[in-house]
Design goal:
Keywords: Hydrolase, Protease, Signal, Thiol protease. The chain has four helices and six strands, in the order H-H-H-H-E-E-E-E-E-E. It is of the alpha+beta class. The chain has a six-stranded antiparallel β-sheet with strand order 1-6-2-3-4-5. Helix 1 runs antiparallel to helix 2.
């Protein structure tokens, strides 16, 4: 796994598009589900450089332990890690995954970019930051340190973009 640095995130620029591949699905019902593609109606803004820096900052926490309710700096839960990373770049997010699923700009799967926050599982019980190449940077579960997990292991509830 290549190290993710703040300098690398800045070097990507706002126009960086993910060249990796990802797969996932959206299932269930309600407002969290989505379908379709990014083409068609209004132009979707690209992921912001601040979101890419938040991804890089979250990457500095790789290897730290998972702890339910963890908000750092020694251990994290999924929403605590996401909230901290985005707060560090001046983007204030609510504390829980469920709250974070309701804010920001909803993004269709076909427009997914590194730095986007992915709310996962049919019940929105987990989240991470898309790292590109089909991987999510996340604080996954007990006994699994912060790191990358293939997006293909999850169902997608919603994807959110923050500026």
């Amino acid at each position: 796994m290549a190290a993710l640095t703040v300098a690398a995130a800045l070097g990507m620029g706002a126009a960086h598009a993910d060249s990796g591949s990802a797969s996932g699905s959206s299932s269930g019902s309600g407002t969290g589900s989505f379908s379709g593609s990014a083409s068609g109606s209004a132009q979707l803004p690209l992921a912001s450089p601040r979101a890419q820096i938040a991804l890089a900052l979250a990457g500095t926490q790789t290897g730290k332990p998972y702890e339910w309710g963890g908000t750092g700096p020694d251990s994290w839960d999924c929403s605590g890690l996401v909230q901290w990373a985005f707060r560090s770049v001046g983007i204030m997010l609510p504390r829980t995954t469920w709250q974070q699923a309701e804010v920001g700009l909803e993004v269709p799967f076909g427009a997914l970019q590194p730095g986007d926050v992915i709310i996962l599982n049919d019940d929105a019980s987990h989240e991470g930051i898309y790292a590109g190449g089909g991987n999510v940077l996340n604080a996954y579960d007990w006994g699994v340190p912060v790191g990358l997990t293939p997006l293909s292991q999850f169902d997608i509830y919603t994807i959110r973009r923050f500026f």
